[in-house]
Amino acid sequence: MYRFYGWQSADIADEQGLAPRDYYDLLSGIWSADTCAPRMRGDWSPDNPTLGQCSITAFLMQDLYGGKVLGVPLGDGNFHCFNVVGDCVFDLTSEQFGSRALDYDNCPEQRREDHFAKVEKRQRYEVLRGRLMEALAGRRE
Q: What's the whole-model pTM score?
């Protein structure tokens, strides 16, 4: 059973026929401390693999599905990123918040250019993307 936000209705498929649940399964073995946001890295663990992975994961899903990346304001100046593709709303990294409910309504769009202006974030995205492409290649073999 999946626990990420929107898993029940995330029935879209990319050109390979993969749904967000499929990518969640792949990413669960790929997310790591080195892809976690530096400010959260000390709290990252295999028990909470989605911690600090939101923006790089959401932009990676945007590459695959299109749509928009929106951000839930967290009240500290930061945003938690998630995906909206047509009527499908999903957040592969929502589990990092445990039982805290996020408000996914009326959230502002997040721009890749703004997020990737931080070199470390772009580098973490590239690492995650590379690992995902390797995992996808392994599935085809």
A: 0.95
* pLDDT digit string, tens, across residues 14-25: 999 999 999 999
Structural domain includes residue 10: no
Query: Residue 30: which domain range?
Result: 21-140
> Counting runs of H as helices and runs of E as strands, what totals does the chain give?
4, 3
Q: Are 20 and 7 a contacting pair, CB within 8 Å? A: yes
Q: Facing residues of 84 across strands?
A: 68, 89
Name which of 13, 18, 100, 4 is nearest 54 in CA terms. 4
96 within some domain: yes
Q: What are phi and psi of 34, to 5 degrees?
A: -75, -15
In the chain the first and final C-alpha atoms are separated, in Å, by 27
Mean pLDDT score, 50-68: 97
Cβ atoms within 10 Å, residue 135:
15
| Tally of structural domains, the chain | 1
